[in-house]
Amino acid sequence: MIDTVADERRRGRPRSATAKRAILRAAFDLLVEHGLAATSMDAVAQRAGVSKATIYRWWPTKGLLALDALYDGWETSPRGPRETGSLRGDLLALVRPWVRLASAPGSRRLLAALIAEAQRHPGFAAAYRERFVEPRRAHGREVFARAVARDEIPAATDVEVALDLLYGPLYHRLLHGHAPLNDRFVRDVVQATLASVAAAR
Amino acid sequence: MIDTVADERRRGRPRSATAKRAILRAAFDLLVEHGLAATSMDAVAQRAGVSKATIYRWWPTKGLLALDALYDGWETSPRGPRETGSLRGDLLALVRPWVRLASAPGSRRLLAALIAEAQRHPGFAAAYRERFVEPRRAHGREVFARAVARDEIPAATDVEVALDLLYGPLYHRLLHGHAPLNDRFVRDVVQATLASVAAAR
Amino acid sequence: MIDTVADERRRGRPRSATAKRAILRAAFDLLVEHGLAATSMDAVAQRAGVSKATIYRWWPTKGLLALDALYDGWETSPRGPRETGSLRGDLLALVRPWVRLASAPGSRRLLAALIAEAQRHPGFAAAYRERFVEPRRAHGREVFARAVARDEIPAATDVEVALDLLYGPLYHRLLHGHAPLNDRFVRDVVQATLASVAAAR
Amino acid sequence: MIDTVADERRRGRPRSATAKRAILRAAFDLLVEHGLAATSMDAVAQRAGVSKATIYRWWPTKGLLALDALYDGWETSPRGPRETGSLRGDLLALVRPWVRLASAPGSRRLLAALIAEAQRHPGFAAAYRERFVEPRRAHGREVFARAVARDEIPAATDVEVALDLLYGPLYHRLLHGHAPLNDRFVRDVVQATLASVAAAR
DNA sequence: CGGTAATCGAGACGGTACGTCATGTCTTACA
DNA sequence: TGTAAGACATGACGTACCGTCTCGATTACCG
Predict the structure, then answer these.
(1) Nucleic strand E contacts from chain B, 10-69, CB < 7 Å
(2) Does B108 reach chain A within 8 Å, measured CB to CB?
(3) Which of the four, B49, B73, B132, C175, has the lowest number of CB atoms within 10 Å?
């Protein structure tokens, strides 16, 4: 959404909340079913029972609409994962739900398309990171911070690198599909992350 | 390429090697300069001085043409990296040239586009893995095999996982751009891979 | 034309009269200059300063566009020819303008192309007859009706056959070009038509 | 191929005459079935079991090939119609077989296409007239000459005009399809031609 | 309570790429 | 040497989508 804030008094006809919901819902359904490239703005407009101009009034680009639609459809739990008492447990709790969501064929296709879109439009890249990357990394940072507080890992741990060691391999298998992204692999990756952090001690 | 083998005597007019070279070269240049989506088949045909029908005779899809063009333009050294005597050195020698190549803005954009394309067309995905993923992983397997032979790492090391621990974080920063993909990070990732392999002992 | 009537309030953006005029004009010019087969839709679009999609939105086929364009460019006088007081005079007044128009090289070529098109597409054939054949035959029927009213020819005259006796030979020379379509021939044909009608008395 | 067996038996001089026959036959079948525009040279070559180059060696153009193919397939009786003793009978005998042949849907379509082609290529027009128009007109001239000899019509009769009065209306209904081309109409046209010739006495 | 202003639907528009197809030419291997 | 196989340049075809635009019809608030 461009501006959810409505603190300032607007003059004309207010924005139709119905239309907005219908657009996001239609876009989400079409995106999951057909992917980004195969989802046309005309199709979104038609399915939402809305004019194309209405969509373009609020979202300047198909990519940004997709971003909002997917955020709206996916991001059900803004709060971080539950605490388990150990770094290993926290990391698994952090990563497993994401793997479950991202492994569906539709999601995988979309994730790849969003990443590709981000290479082409810097503005889109920023929005993508803000919406999809940062929240999860923020949760990850908390997890590592708790581990530091518990004195489980050194305070000097480079959390940013650790997060890449954690998420990188998962994304890798997800996008390349050269090997299965199963829970075995998830545990291996978490284990490796722990090992690397411990070795840096 | 459709058929590199020409041991059998073909009947009609042979394929024009000039045209093929011109097409691959034109496609490569345009791809690097404009990216996959912004490279049109018409433009490739015109720049190659070739008819569009000729392109479509040999490459059924823009994606597969791009694959061949990039393979042709990039893959200069089919042999693996030089041996350094240590796993750490070998891994750095394996990864650094790839990082250098893939970090150029054009390459990054293209890599993302290829990955996105692969989610949509299973046939393309297979070709992509065969052309771009497997060769590098094969080199990586040799590197780890040498380390085993040197008794540097356990023989039971799961090489496939190790390769994902190595390449995954690099791809991650490359595609998401949330943090720099510099040599510092490369060394960190190699170090982490070593730590994880060592810890599994 | 698709919809000449516009008395009902339409919802969306109204059709651009400018674009429509430009398309018909461009098509007409190109058709007269190059003929039907050598006139491409791309060329029409470019010359009209219009997108190809706009043309295809309103005319499903090149043939139907040609029909409208030629009707628009040629059919200047919807009213019938002037009355001369005699069947002979009326027939000459009916036929001479048509011969003058149709004898130009461009027109001849186009007429033949339209007739050929009509053999292939039944829908086109109907439109062709409605636009180009029927109006002229209607005028002819009036001419013969007046002659009957003047008691110049029998009331039982088969007007449809008479019209074919009149137009048939003219079209024949026009399309086959085996002999000149001059005013001498026009007078001969009118004379023969009169003789045949009189002999049936 | 007409007969591959006999063809394989002979070694040195392959089948130039065989190929020619196969080409004409294949072209004729395809033309009658699909029309001129929908018959491609590739299709003719494939059906004839012949290379495209072989076709182009003998016929410079698709139109001229069609001309020969149709002439070969249709023109079964080069001799004129039988003599009946009266001009009326001779004209009917001249015209009825042609009407029967030309009325088939395939023929009608082709005739129109040939006429259209003739407007575009002067060389084709000449060949068309020589092959298809002149022979029939020559027969017609003989018919009228016999009538003059029998003193049935004046010696000063303009035969060229008379032939147009005869064939023109028939072609007209054939190509425009605004009214049926049945035997009733044929008799009316013959009658009208006779009346016009008699009236000129 | 009427004016003002922004919204919405419908959908036409310019632009551009797609992948297909046909024509007529040209190049090789074979017989 | 002619023929079959078939690659080639050229260029039109009709479809699809994008993002912009022009309407007339709705809502609100504001004076």
Answers:
(1) 10-14, 39-43, 51-53, 56, 60-62
(2) yes
(3) B49
Nearest to C111 by CA among C177, C179, C197: C177
Residue A120: CB less than 7 A from any atom in strand F: no
Residues D23 and D68: their CA atoms lie apart, in Å, by 10
SS3 percent helix, strand, coil of chain A, rounded to 5, is 70, 0, 30
Task: Please tell me the distance from the alpha carbon of residue C93 to that of residue C81, in angstroms, as a whole number.
Answer: 6
b/e B147-180 (16+ beta carbons within 10 angstroms → b):
beeeebbeeebbbbbbbbbbbbbbbbbbbbbbee
Mean pLDDT of chain C: 89
B195 interface with A at CB cutoff 8 Å: yes
Distance CA B107 to C1' F21 in A: 37
Give dist(CA A172, CA B52) in Å, integer: 35
- Which residues in B lie closer than 8 A to residue A107 (C-beta atoms)? none
Q: Does D171 touch chain C (CB under 8 A)?
A: yes
**Which residues in chain A have their CB less than 8 angstroms from residue B118's CB?**
112, 175-177
Task: Quote the tokens at residue A188.
Answer: 């291996």
Q: Are D199 and C195 in contact (CB under 8 A)?
A: yes
> Which of D90, D93, D101, D30 lies closest to D66, judged by CA?
D30
What's the distance, CA D78 to chain centroid?
Answer: 11
Is pLDDT of C200 > 90?
no
Chain D neighbors of C171, CB-CB under 8 A: 168, 171-172, 175
CA atoms within 13 A on the CB side of B104: 13
Rg (chain C; Cα; Å): 20
- The residues, any chain, with a CB within 8 Å of residue A170's CB and separated by 6 or more, are A95, A98, A99, A181, A185, A186, A189, B168
d(C-alpha B83, C-alpha B87), whole Å = 9
- Tokens 């001249």 label which residue? D94
Is C98 touching D (CB cutoff 8 A)? no
Cite the beta strand spans of A10-53 per DSSP E: none
Element (H, E) at D193: helix D183-199
Is there a contact between B115 and A112 (Cβ–Cβ < 8 Å)?
yes
Task: Determine the Cα–Cα distance for residues C182 and C171; give it in Å rounded to an integer.
Answer: 12
Under the banding of pLDDT at 50, 70 and 90, the label for residue A74 is confident
Instruction: Using a CB–CB cutoff of 8 Å, tell me whether D118 touches chain C.
Output: yes
- Residue B66 has what pLDDT? 95
Question: Within 7 A of a protein CB, which nucleotides of strand F?
Answer: 2-30
Contact yes or no for D196 and C196 at CB 8 A:
yes
The Cα D59–Cα B14 span in angstroms is: 26
Spatial separation of the C-alpha atoms in residues C42 and C58, rounded to whole Å: 15
Q: Which residue is nearest to nucleotide E28 (CA to C1')?
A: B13
Q: How far apart are CA A86 and CA A97, in angstroms?
A: 18
Which of C121, C131, C137, C196 best probes binding to D when mutated, by most D CB atoms within 10 angstroms?
Answer: C196
Q: Computed from CA positions of residues D190, D196, D199, D201, in that sequence, does the dihedral angle turn out positive or negative?
A: negative
This prediction's pTM: 0.86
Count of positions (residues) in chain B: 201
Compute the average pLDDT of residues A12-25: 85
Q: Which of B189, B181, B177, B164 is nearest to A177 (CA)?
A: B164
Closest by Cα among D35, D7, D37, D34 to D22: D7
B167 touches chain A (CB under 8 A): yes
pLDDT 10s digits, C134-187: 999 999 999 999 999 999 999 999 999 999 999 999 999 999 999 999 999 999
Residue A9 pLDDT grade (very low, low, confident, very high; cuts 50, 70, 90): low
CB–CB contact C35 D175 (8 Å)? no
Q: Given an 8 Å threshold on Cβ–Cβ distance, is B112 in contact with A116? A: yes
Tell me which residue has tokens 């002819």. Answer: C140
